[in-house]
Write a structure and sequence with these properties.
Order of helices and strands: HHH
Largest sheet: none
Strand content: under 5%
Radius of gyration: 24 Å
Helix content: 55-70%
Number of helices: 3
Distance between the termini: 34 Å
Structural class: mainly alpha
Shape: flat
Amino acid sequence: MSVTAYDSSFSFRQNELATKGDQGPRGMTAEQYEKFKESPFMKKAKLQEEQTWTMTSERDKQRKQRDPAFNPQDSDFTAPKAFNYE
């Protein structure tokens, strides 16, 4: 076995399973998830997402005014490269 391909996390998980047994289901219950969504952390994350969307929309509107050829689409991310830099 190659040292570069060794993954210690797998061995650790196997050892934990062998010594402690199955720890039950992972994740949150529906009640815990609802409580998490109302946490200060998630409120800040939602606020940050809204602000990011607002700023991105404003930037795109300004660019559209300056550059009539600017027409962003989701397919832009899968389009072939216009120039191969390598």
